[in-house]
Design brief:
The chain is an alpha/beta fold. It is built from 23 helices and 13 strands. α8 (158-166) runs antiparallel to α16 (343-355), α13 crosses α14 and α16 (343-355) packs parallel to α21 (477-498). It binds glucose-6-phosphate.
Length: 547
């Protein structure tokens, strides 16, 4: 892949298309084509994507598909599914797709089929989660383990946390799940305060088993447990999810209680692996398997559908269109489903850690924008916070709206109201309201001419603001698997087009390194370390207060 894609043929063509198309109004496109909604919609299993409320027409889409072809998206998809080491900077294969593979084909990495080991761990997860749920694996004093605590951070927290919360309606009635991620002692204290050591199972989730937050939290929890029940209790109350057997054993968890995964599973892509153990315990292995099957359905679709019918490819290209041609470097994901409230947090890591890069795979600085800023929250709550800016702010924010047609809690008319809100938001963002329309409304409401003149600008909406609408029948485990795999592949396609490594995360290391330098100063075992005057001043100020 050549550096400097702005100069490529497909890129230059897109620039021309953009110049001609950029002022086109979506409301005119809808008025001119009664079939537009249907034309730009796709279905997969129980999922519908309507991407018609985007600033596109067939010419735009063809030009975007040509870019995907030119950038070799097809070959890169094959390379990922085939176990090639596409994580170039870390020289690793990228095989979260192997974790949910439902057919019997092998996948080779360095001449070795990875599928048998994946299936072994899945079987071990099934047996263990069933034993905990049935109460045949108990705590040290023989009591059922009903409080499950996942200790992990980043990729070892956000996925299992988001998915466990998303699948709350499927939880076993007597099991409660907790998550400790932050090094802030409050995170640990607030969870432990609620728990009884005799009924608590700790899952220490860490790919490397060297992450300072996770190990500090795990040691604190271990002390809390052994203070109450003694050292012998550890083997009944601690399990580890990791790639690092030596460190797990050093911590005092024996390998029988370890669920393994491998370096071809990236942290933020790991909820399908052993890292999903808490999901299995909460919702049962059958439901966990349904989630894998949902992801597999999306994988198959992604790997086989032509670009014009390929959901992740289309979402990726729409993102490229806004990011690189309209210069809109942000987007929002708004699930209208309370159980999906943590989806935006999870996607922030998936997208921003994967594509927040500025060096190409050819070792050159990029000369185009890469990963956008992602934010979001659950609707309708966020309609009453940041949606003002989405409707009338100076910057455009493309939105992904997500909703199930059927709620897990069909109480009164709550869900029809929720549905009407999501659909109204998409329509309002696209359609807007002209000054003329605003004036007519004000006149109808009996306002005077001078009031109308004063208010009409405030009350008008520019519109032409893009959104995708994604509808599931219900947010069940299968749907959740589809949804998450869809975003994983979208992020992947964008990384391919930007020619960056979406699977490393060197950007998080500098701060970690520098924190290790500052720690001895805060603890009072090192003095006079050189920093800028701001950092030195802040260190001294905090030390004085903590004395
Ligand atoms: C994810 C990142 C990162 C990682 C955490 C936790 O892709 O690699 O978020 O998951 O730093 O790492 P460990 O699982 O090794 O503790």
């Amino acid at each position: 892949m050549m550096f400097g894609q702005k100069k490529s043929k497909a890129w230059r063509n897109l620039e021309c298309v953009y110049r001609r198309f950029k002022d086109t109004q979506m409301r005119d496109l809808f008025a001119a084509d009664r079939m537009r909604g249907e034309r730009y919609s796709l279905k997969l299993e129980n999922m519908l994507l309507d991407y018609s409320k985007n600033r596109i027409n067939d010419t735009v889409m063809q030009a975007l598909f040509a870019l995907a072809e030119e950038r070799g998206v097809r070959d890169k998809i094959k390379a990922m599914f085939g176990g090639q080491k596409i994580n170039q900077t870390e020289n690793r294969a990228v095989l979260h797709v192997a974790l949910r593979k439902q057919d019997n084909e092998p996948i080779y990495v360095d001449g070795h089929d990875v599928m048998p080991q994946i299936r072994n761990v899945l079987n071990k997860m099934r047996d263990f989660s069933e034993a905990v749920r049935l109460g045949t694996f108990t705590g040290y004093t023989g009591k059922k383990l009903t409080n499950i605590v996942n200790i992990g951070i980043g990729g070892s927290d956000l996925g299992p946390f988001m998915a466990t919360e998303a699948l709350r309606p499927y939880w076993a009635k007597d099991i409660k799940c907790y998550f400790i991620s932050n090094i802030d002692g409050t995170a640990c204290a607030e969870v432990l305060n609620k728990l009884d050591p005799e009924t608590t199972l700790f899952i220490v989730a860490s790919k490397t088993f060297t992450t300072i937050e996770t190990l500090t939290n795990a040691h604190t929890c271990r002390h809390w447990l052994t203070d109450a029940l003694g050292e012998h209790a550890v083997s009944k109350h601690f399990v580890a999810l990791s790639t690092n057997k030596a460190e797990v054993e050093k911590f005092g968890i024996n390998s029988d209680n370890m669920f393994e995964f491998w370096d071809f599973v990236g942290g933020r892509y790991s909820m399908w692996s052993a890292i999903g153990l808490i999901i299995c315990i909460a919702v049962g292995y059958k439901n966990f398997e349904r989630m894998l099957q949902g992801a597999y359905a999306m994988d198959k679709h992604f790997a086989t559908a032509d670009f014009a019918h390929n959901i992740p490819v289309i979402l990726a290209l729409l993102g490229i269109w806004y990011n690189n041609f309209y210069n809109i470097h942000r987007y929002a994901v708004i699930p209208y489903d309370q159980y999906l409230q943590y989806l935006p947090n999870y996607l922030q890591q998936l997208d921003m850690e994967s594509n927040g890069k500025s060096i190409t795979l050819d070792n050159e600085p990029v000369d185009y924008a890469t990963g956008p800023v992602l934010f979001g929250g659950a609707g309708t709550d966020v309609q009453h916070s940041f949606f003002q800016l989405l409707h009338q702010g100076t910057g455009i924010v493309p939105v992904d709206f997500i909703i199930p047609a059927i709620s897990h809690n069909e109480i009164g008319n709550h869900h029809p109201i929720l549905i009407s809100n999501i659909l109204a938001q998409g329509e309002a963002l696209m359609h807007g309201k002209t000054e003329k329309e605003a004036s007519a409304e004000l006149e109808k409401a009996g306002k005077s001419k001078s009031e109308i003149a004063r208010l009409k600008k405030y009350k008008s909406f520019s519109g032409n603001r893009p959104s995708n609408t994604i509808i599931f029948k219900k947010i069940d485990p299968f749907a959740l698997g589809q949804l998450i795999a869809m975003y994983e592949h979208k992020v992947f396609v964008q990384g391919v087009i930007w020619n960056i490594d979406s699977f490393d995360q060197f950007g998080v290391e500098l701060g970690k390194q520098m924190a290790l330098n500052i720690l001895p100063e805060i603890e009072g075992t090192a003095f006079g370390v050189e920093h800028d005057s701001s950092t030195t001043g802040l260190i001294n100020y905090i030390k004085k207060i903590r004395k």
